[in-house]
Amino acid sequence: MRDDKCIFCKIAAGEIPSATLYEDKDFRVIMDVSPASKGHALILPKEHYANLYELDDELAAKVLVLAKKMITKLKDIVGCDGYNVLQNNGTAAGQTVFHFHMHLIPRYENDNVNIGWEPGSLSDDVKEMVLSGMAE
Ligand code: AMP
Ligand code: ZN
């Protein structure tokens, strides 16, 4: 599965050069060109899936194992103090490239990376709405 208009399909296939940290039959791991912090990397599946909703189950399982392997090695290379491992689904969630990818973002004490929210409070009606939806 591939989308000829998708830049990450071309990068994952090696048709557009990238700073590749790792490659296997399923994935290519590259350095982000506009990094949030020093060492920001992206895991790209070689097949095109727009987002996590569409991602093949087997690849979904493999991607977290690969993320673990990558950040365990990269943390010593970049000398970071923490890691955010995240991915965005949909424009509302900040997705800008519609080929599934997982961000590996090294964090440094007092860096200026903004991944956060103001904690709200869980209301009874929202809790009820979600719990009853899950029970259907
Ligand atoms: P998202 O906003 O979750 O869709 O993330 C897209 C990410 O892809 C951003 O962090 C971009 O900096 C990164 N990006 C976009 N184009 C390229 C490219 N050609 N090579 C490497 N990273 C890219
Ligand atoms: Zn693609």
Which word captures the global form?
A: globular
Bound molecules: adenosine monophosphate, zinc ion
Helix content: 25-40%
Low-confidence runs: none
Strand ordering within the main sheet:
1-2-3-5-4
In sequence order, what are the helices and strands, one letter per element?
HEEEHEEH
Query: Termini distance?
Result: 33 Å
Q: Mean pLDDT, as a whole number?
A: 97
- Main sheet summary: 5 strands, antiparallel
The strand count comes to: 5
Number of helices: 3
Question: Would you spell out the secondary-structure blueprint of this structure?
Answer:
Blueprint: H1 7-12, E1 20-23, E2 27-31, E3 41-45, H2 57-78, E4 82-86, E5 102-107, H3 124-135
Antiparallel strand pairs: 1-2, 2-3, 3-5, 4-5
The chain binds adenosine monophosphate (AMP) and zinc ion (ZN).
Zinc ion is lined by residues 3, 6, 8-9, 48, 99.
